[in-house]
Automatic annotation (TrEMBL):
Cited function: This magnesium-dependent enzyme catalyzes the hydrolysis of ATP coupled with the transport of calcium. Transports the calcium to the vacuole and participates in the control of the cytosolic free calcium. Catalyzes the hydrolysis of ATP coupled with the transport of calcium.
UniProt cross-references to SUPFAM superfamilies, sorted A to Z: Calcium ATPase, transduction domain A, Calcium ATPase, transmembrane domain M, HAD-like, Metal cation-transporting ATPase, ATP-binding domain N
Domain Cation-transporting P-type ATPase N-terminal span(s) in chain numbering: 43-124
Protein name: Calcium-transporting ATPase
CDD domains documented for this protein: P-type_ATPase_Ca_PMCA-like (cd02081)
Domain of life where this protein originates: Eukaryota
Keywords from the named record: ATP-binding, Calcium, Calcium transport, Ion transport, Magnesium, Membrane, Metal-binding, Nucleotide-binding, Translocase, Transmembrane, Transmembrane helix, Transport
E.C. code: 7.2.2.10
Membrane topology (UniProt): Multi-pass membrane protein
Xref: Pfam families: Cation_ATPase, Cation_ATPase_C, Cation_ATPase_N, E1-E2_ATPase
Single biological process term from Gene Ontology: intracellular calcium ion homeostasis
GO CC annotations on file: endomembrane system; fungal-type vacuole membrane; plasma membrane
Length: 1172
């Protein structure tokens, strides 16, 4: 047979316009997956799967080829120009001008602007075309009414501009967060090397490696391995879909459809008359690998992929969080009352205005039309301005700012918030269910003790780590494995085979081997010698193997977490610990791992890897079946949880290769001894299948996949004698030290009323020992059996039994993901707000079920991340404590702002309303421009000052509020009512009695003097808000303290405590104070200001400072006293009527109505509180 170098004839449907180097267009490749079709695959690639690589210029072993220049910037390549990369265009954020336009289009702003324009025009007309007027002293009155129109317009511009700036910053902050949370890394093969690169940098033709827990980043075709995939989030198909490599899929497809016409061909998704499904090799972007390993070639990326097209169709605005929704509802209720007050004021003033005009002796009867129009406009502007003041647009703004600020700071602390509501919820958390490995511990494991055969070793420098064996038996591991050591060559070879081949860990190319001070080097390999490519060396860490120069820069936190801690191997920490042991003591040369796996014949005499059984947390073990060369011997190597593997062993292998019956009591004693020293015990064993012509044997065939053995059947297979069963080769103890500071973090949680429970796969003795070390168990509770339980036992308990034991339970050992889910479900049923950590694919149900799910940023799978609300970017438990702090801080900051805003809101509206009604000229003591300045203070500036606060030092000394935290507490109502009363009393006295106080003995005062009094009232009102803002820095520091004397403390009464903690607050306070002084000195006509005397200034400042002592007195008063003033039933009636709940009920859907009917006043009901 002769061969040519000419490519095969291209199929008819190939686009002739496409470059010859890449004959298929993006649309043609997209047809492979929409719908998934092997028929289309055969048409595109001429019925030859090898053309898949040829047409995409790729290779199964080497991936795509890029020059050094193209590696640094692939955007100049023909591949990128034709197919693009895996980036999905971001939602274009609104421009600053668009945000200004939206803010300006607010109805109240438009009304004010229109009124301001009319006021300006009338003012100009009055100034230019009406005769001059004179005051009682004969001096001409300056006609400056037009200035007020300009001032209002300027105030509107300022309010609109500040609001747009805040919205713009919010857009930018969340755009950055979304970009970060959507990015992740994946291993791709390019230029024969494995590179860790961003999923955004994937190109068509790339070969990627996949493993259980991965989320498929782009559309592709499985070319090696097999796996089970969940496509429910993409296709809605709830059943797990089995994927096979394309070569096998095409063979089966051809057999099933042999002899059929085109309209009879069955494609992917159909079943044969026998019920068999058409094999599926198509991988859809966004789907999740539930089990299995594999390698895929990318065919569609970015907007050409299924996931990309879906995302482009779903570019919508983010949903509001629960707190934002509750605040919006509160704002709407307040707005209604503001509108009612404004309408009522307008009607009263308008009726009186008509009376003044129509009555023969009315005050306005003799005014010219322009002046009458001005008087009417003043009424209208005052009413509209009251609406502006009453509408608390700062409430939604405050929560947005607080969440944006908190999430940004949380990111710096190691928490990447994927779901904003989680930030709120963490503040109410009452229980944390934490994994052990990597969260409570450093996840830097090393084998420190154990035995191989009957040879014991101890590599630990810790004298406490003793063995059951006597000291005379203990040697270093290198001594028992050295040449002519205690272990036979066969035992060492089998032990090494289990460690090297039964593993997904791989070598870290950034590691410098300290033994010879040489960097990682790869051996040249001849592709013809590759018997079996062990390609599934995939890890869940984000540490660089060989960093793609074009990849996005890694997160600083993760880089800092791994800096200075370079390890020789990357992957599961248990497996890296075993490989490190092999490197140190078993002559495993660093840099040779990949070659050993690709060609295991020379060293291990293994000719074929028949089956890989990945480690799964549900069964606690992983295995591999190998076939030895020139024989019919298949051997099953297994490693996993010590007691699970050893309990299934029938025999034990000695160091001289002799086989003896296993003494399980002795083995269990050794495991217990390791566990008591807080070591993770791991058993390694094997089982032979001699005279086996093919794999698997009939008795252990997997019914769903006849080509594989069923893992459960394989482990449970009985044996006839010592040699035919599962043989224990050794047990090792792995040490994982506690993270620095974890003891303090756990203590902080306990002090804050948050119960920490450890959920681990370790046996119960190891788990208890570690829990004691990190303070989850005290010395007293360590001895109480009810404080720890094993997962299998926990799941057999009834619901009532679980509820009874959970208050004392602190440790769950040997737990499966289902046990964790059951624990979370029970805790939530008991009313707890539960946070849970998880790293595995099977943890996804528990992460979804929890109120807040934390996934691991370093060790977690992509499925776990997708199911979580917050990603712990450093896998550190201390970050959970930070999340609790910031969650509480967000809630407290919002409630501080609500307190301040309602004080100003109530006072400003009542003052303007009453003073307008009482005025013969129908004018408010606070002009429209002054009210707009007050509105700016209480909305935007106060939101910036209070919503950006940091957690105070005592925030973890308070108990959690629980699931239904009200927005307004008794302590808040106390402060709102008391400060409102103070401000109204002070301003009413100054407004109505100012003439008697400052101009005593005079029956009449001049217009200028009256303007002085009005300006002083305005000045006093602003300084009252200034000092009330200081008072609002304290909120619930004394909650729960019922004794008057005990409430007198610095934490409760010192409003200046930690004042420099928040520079935003100081800056805003400075802006308010300086601006007010400038307004009072230079505001003049626009702000209706007359020069103040020293006495007036002193009065304004001193009256403003009254907020501080009144605030202190209110905070000394116990909350229970305030609760007595507001009986619950009376308050519920008040809330029902004035909270407009009777209107809301009309718009409820069925679910809401049922929730209303089912309100029972239980502690967990969100409506059970008397305070909103």
């Amino acid at each position: 047979m002769t061969t040519t170098d000419h490519p095969p004839t291209m199929p008819e449907n190939i686009d002739p316009v496409a470059p010859q180097e890449y004959p298929l267009t993006p649309d043609q490749l997209a047809e492979l997956h929409n719908p998934k079709s092997l028929t289309q695959f055969k048409n595109l690639f001429q019925d030859d799967p090898q053309n898949l690589f040829k047409y995409l210029n790729s290779s199964l072993q080497d991936g795509i080829k890029l020059t050094e220049t193209e590696t640094k910037n692939y955007r100049h390549t023909q591949r990128f120009k034709l197919y693009s990369d895996n980036r999905i265009p971001e939602r274009v954020p609104k421009t600053f001008l668009q945000l200004i336009w939206e803010a300006f289009n607010d109805k109240t702003m438009l009304l004010l602007t229109a009124a301001a324009v009319v006021s300006f025009v009338l003012g100009l007309y009055e100034a230019l075309y009406t005769p001059p007027e004179y005051d009682p002293e004969g001096n001409p009155i300056k006609k400056v009414d037009w200035i007020e129109g300009i001032a209002i317009m300027i105030a509107v511009i300022v309010v609109v501009f500040v609001g747009a700036v805040n919205d713009y910053q919010k857009e930018l902050q969340f755009a950055r967060l979304n970009k970060k949370k959507e990015n992740r890394k994946i291993i791709v093969i390019r230029n024969s090397q494995e590179l860790l690169t961003s999923i955004h940098n994937l190109l068509v033709g790339d070969i990627i490696t996949l493993q259980t827990g991965d989320v498929i980043p782009a559309d592709g075709v499985l070319v090696e391995g097999q796996c089970e995939v969940d496509e429910s989030s993409i296709t809605g198909e709830s059943d797990t879909i089995k994927k096979v490599k394309v070569f096998n899929a095409l063979k089966t497809f051809d057999v099933i459809n042999e002899g059929k016409s085109n309209d009879q061909i069955l494609d992917i998704g159909f079943k044969t008359p026998n019920g068999d499904k058409i094999p599926d090799c198509m991988l859809i972007s966004g789907s999740k690998l539930l089990s299995g390993l594999g390698k895929a070639i990318i065919t569609s990326v970015g907007t050409n992929s299924i996931h990309g097209r879906t995302m482009m169709a779903l570019k919508v605005e983010p949903e509001s969080t629960p707190l934002q929704q509750r605040l919006s509802q509160l704002a709407d209720s307040i707005s209604v009352y503001g509108c009612v007050a404004a309408i009522l004021l307008f009607l009263v003033l308008f009726i009186r205005f008509l009376f003044y005009i129509l009555a023969p002796n009315g005050r306005f009867h003799d005014l010219d039309p322009a002046q009458k129009g001005t008087k009417f406009l003043n009424i209208f502007i005052t009413a509209v301005t009251i609406i502006v003041v009453a509408v608390p647009e700062g409430l939604p703004l405050a929560v947005t700012l607080a969440l944006a600020f908190a999430t940004t700071r949380m990111t710096k602390d190691g928490n990447l918030v994927r779901n904003l509501r989680a930030c709120e919820t963490m503040g109410s958390a009452t229980a944390v269910c934490s994994d052990k490995t990597g969260t409570l511990t450093e996840n830097v494991m090393s084998v420190v003790r154990g035995f191989v055969g009957d040879s014991y070793f101890n590599d630990s420098d810790n004298a406490l780590l003793t063995s059951v064996a006597t000291d005379s038996h203990i040697k270093k591991s290198i001594e028992i494995f050295k040449k002519n050591g205690e272990c036979s060559e066969n035992l060492e070879k089998d032990f090494l085979t289990n460690i090297v081949l039964n593993s997904t860990a791989f070598e870290n190319k950034d590691f410098v081997d300290s033994a010879n001070n040489l960097p990682f080097s790869t051996d040249e390999r001849d592709p013809s010698q590759v018997k079996r490519a062990f390609e599934f060396v995939r890890t869940h860490t984000r540490i660089s193997i060989s960093r793609d120069d074009n990849s996005d820069s890694g997160d600083d936190l993760i880089q800092n977490a791994i800096k200075g801690r370079q390890e020789p191997y990357i992957g599961s920490k248990t497996e890296t610990a075993l490989l490190t042991l092999a490197k140190k003591s078993m002559n495993l040369r660093f840099g040779s791992l990949r070659a050993l796996r690709e060609n295991p014949v020379d060293r291990f005499e293994v000719s074929e890897i028949a089956q890989i059984i990945p480690f799964e947390s549900t069964r606690k073990w992983g295995g591999i079946i190998v076939k030895y060369k020139e024989s019919n011997l298949y051997r099953f190597f297994i490693k996993g949880a010590a007691e699970i593997v050893s309990n299934n062993c029938h025999s034990k292998r000695n160091s001289d290769d002799s086989i003896v019956t296993l003494n399980k009591d002795q083995i269990n004693k050794e495991i217990e001894n390791l566990a008591n020293d807080a070591l993770r015990a791991l058993s390694l064993a094997h089982r032979d299948f001699p005279n086996c012509t093919s794999w698997p044997p009939n008795e252990i065939v997997d019914e769903k996949n006849p080509d594989r053995a069923d893992p459960e059947k394989l482990l449970a297979l009985t044996c006839e004698d010592d040699d035919s069963g599962l043989i224990l080769d050794g047990i090792v103890g792995i040490m994982d030290p506690l993270r620095e500071g974890v003891r303090n973090s756990v203590e902080q949680c306990q002090r804050a009323g948050v119960t920490v429970r450890m959920v681990t796969g370790d046996n119960i003795l190891t788990a208890r020992a570690i829990a004691r070390n990190c303070n989850i168990l005290s010395e007293e509770t360590y001895l109480i059996p009810e404080c720890a339980i094993e997962g299998p036992k926990f799941r057999t308990l009834t619901k009532q039994e679980r509820i009874k034991m959970l208050p004392n339970l602190r440790v769950m050992a040997r737990s499966s993901p289902e046990d964790k889910r059951l624990l979370v479900e029970t805790l939530k049923g008991m009313g707890d707000v539960v946070a849970v950590t998880g790293d595995g694919t099977n943890d996804a149900p528990a992460l979804k079920l929890a109120d807040v799910g934390f996934s691991m940023g370093i060790s977690g799978t992509e499925v776990a991340r997708e199911a979580s609300d917050i990603i712990l970017m450093t896998d550190d438990f201390a970050a959970i404590v930070d999340a609790i702090k910031w969650g509480r801080c967000v809630s407290i900051s919002i409630k501080k702002f609500i307190q301040f805003q309602l004080i100003v809101n109530i006072t400003a509206v009542i003052l303007a309303f009453v003073s307008s009604i009482a005025s013969e000229d129908e004018t408010s003591v606070l002009t429209a421009v002054q009210l707009l300045w007050i509105n700016l203070i209480m909305d935007t500036l106060a939101a910036l000052a209070l919503a950006t606060d940091k957690p105070d030092p005592n925030i973890m000394d308070r108990k959690p509020r629980g699931r239904s935290t009200p927005l307004i507490f008794p302590s808040t109502w106390k402060m709102i009512l008391s400060q409102s009363c103070l401000q109204l009393i002070v301003t009413f006295i100054l407004h109505f009695n100012g003439k008697e106080i400052f101009f005593r003995g005079r029956d009449e005062i001049t217009g200028h003097e009256q303007q002085q009094l009005n300006a002083m009232t305005f000045n006093t009102f602003v300084w009252l808000q200034f000092f009330t803002l200081l008072v609002s820095r304290k909120l619930d520091e004394a909650d729960g303290i019922k004794n008057w004397r005990d409430r007198i403390s610095e934490a409760n009464l010192n409003f200046f405590q930690d004042l420099f903690r928040n520079y935003y607050f100081l800056f805003i306070m400075a802006i308010i104070g300086i601006s007010q002084v400038l307004i009072m000195f230079f505001g003049g006509a626009p702000f209706s200001i007359a020069n103040q005397t020293k006495t007036m200034w002193a009065t304004a400042i001193l009256c403003g400072t009254l907020s501080l002592p009144v605030g202190a007195l209110v905070r000394i008063c116990p909350d229970e006293w305030a609760a007595r003033i507001f009986p619950e039933k009376l308050f519920q009636k008040f809330k029902y009527i004035f909270g407009l709940e009777f209107i809301k009920e009309r718009h409820m859907d069925k679910d809401d109505e049922e929730a209303l009917l089912n309100r029972d006043g239980s502690p967990n009901s969100s409506d059970s509180t008397v305070f909103f």
